[in-house]
User: Fold this.
Amino acid sequence: MDDRSQIIIPLLDKQRVFLHSVGREVLYSGAFAGGKSRVLCHKLVQRASVPGSREGLVRKTLKSLRASTMTTLLEPDGDLPAVLPIEMIERHNKNEQWIRLKKGGTIFYFGLDDPAKIGSYNLTGCGVDEAIDLKEKDWIYLRGRCRVVVTLERDHHLSIFRPDVFRYMMRNQIYSATNPDGPQHWLARRFGITAPGVAPITPAPGCEVIHTNTLENVFLPEDYVDGLKTMTGIHRKRYVEGLWVGSENMIYPMFLRDHFTHRPEQEAGRGLGKPWNLCVVGVDAGFRHATAIMVIVQDRYGYLHVIEEWVQTQQLEADVVEACKQIDEKHRPLAFFVDPSAASLRAALAVEGLAVEKADNDVQGGIQAVRGKLVMNHAGTPGMTISDNCPDMIRGMETYESKVDPISGEPTDDPVKQNDDEADALRYGVKAIMNLSDTNRVLSQFDPAAHVVYSQNASEVLKRWRVLVPVEGGPTACIWAGVISWHKTKTKPRLYIYREYYQDGCTPEQHVANINELSADEQYEESYIDPKAAVIAIGNERSVADAYDDAGMLMTTWPKSSTDGDPSRLDNLRRLLADRLVSVGGVCPNVIRQMTLWTYKLDGDGKVKQPGRPEAGRPMAEAVVALASLDLIDEMITVDPAKGPDGLGDDEFVSEKKQPKAYKKEGGEWDMSEDFGPDPDEDYGDDIVTVDDVGDPIFG
Assistant:
């Protein structure tokens, strides 16, 4: 007798039905604590114990499979032993993700987030945990992989008799344990599941479903069951009673998985290749309730996409900060829009150098913003999609419901404050993106999609300047900027911001050392400092400006009128932005963030104060405004045909000897037509080229 016969497994009656089911497709539908994952693992081990068997174990993502199902399979759960004890394992190859059983077959475990790998599996059967996270084509594809034939010596519930070969074969089967969803879900249709009181429908051939609920699990502690009984509405019906129900009070009834979700591999085809037009992160903080983090991007066509989620309960603030740091490193979002009540978390993120904003907690406005994106355009393109890698967000959309008035029984405008963490994080992010198109933006002409460049080489910058903005009690900002000539851009000369410095907690001497290190071997026309630095005292009757001067960084204060008191100070930068005469390098994320997020101060009614005064705390944006408002910048990027294609004087930048005379009209003026121009890579030799009456070159 081997070790396996000594294991006593306490099972519920319906778990036994699931273990002995003979359907080609079997679904164990249960509520919270219904023993779903455990009985799924028992069925998996039972089938994998057959010599020669090849059983699959699957969840939507490998990460979620490792964190949940594999733990149930391989590790004890309280007083319960591991479903697959170590004594039964011959070998576990974690790199290739398979487990070989002694005197048995092999278990292959994988996530559906790697479609290319799935095609390499041929299986006798497959267990699927939380099948509601799959799409129907995922299920059908897995079903098609269950086709390996294994001969059995005798008849039992795992076998099917094949009269053509007169022997018993192991029954190919796909089996799943899952929470309920709505009656519109494809699993409900496939297995013939309907809501209570609705006429039954015929399931697909070979499909069998076993229903269970929390109250049927006699092994649960009484206080745990009492706690679940406090749930109300759709959450109680689904997660306690085990019913497949929707709700008449759903806040997003228009959300359908088939329309508003996307596979990660589809992202490139939907215009989601980096750089995004915008990327923001919504954060809803909690402890007993989950902390939900949603990464939301806007593609170049204006559609929104949720591409990543982080949802965890009972996480310390340090854990949340670490998760945000990883997201920031991966996606470089414009900002984290954090729950307004989470002041401590916002401060902790700011200390780590992350761009943090207080989220707009206008609940109804946020809900309307999300609803406005849950539409299809005339071509059938959804206004917003959610990645399949975000199952918590998808479930949150399907369970977010309105409160019901206890007297009238009618739904109210307020959402139920239960399992709403993902929905809150989503509306924070979506509302932030929508707010950026409103009239309260100071630099509404700045469009990251149009003004941010990722391929411009800083070595092509001609004249260069530095602008420094020391902030009392905050980070010191410095930008590096210069002019890119027509010779390089084939357009009008433009101002290019190609480097940034944004640091807190340093002395002026340390700032100077850091800035000079970044400025090594570069020559500048001038370095400018905020005139406010001359009045910020730092002790010993010195100002901040004095300290920088003493540290060897000679700087000129720009005119005060270009920074304070005069709303028209912004007009020059707005004009340059509107004319596409300003570019910001993609390596300047703080400049991009602050120019995008800079808004006017609002009055108590949420309206822009008149005259509009920009909010404080945007030193990077202030530096750009100051530079663009200097007369010399305006002169540099205003094209003067008499000064050659650069508009800056060909004696300084492009030698006239290197330019073909074809492009110099009679009278010495340069032709600035966008249809043609001197090619810097073309060797014209000694050819003499003339120009006709409209300025077109005549060769020969």
User: Anything to note?
Assistant: Residues 655-700 form one domain. The chain has 22 helices and 31 strands. The longest strand covers residues 494-503. The first helix runs from residue 13 to 19.
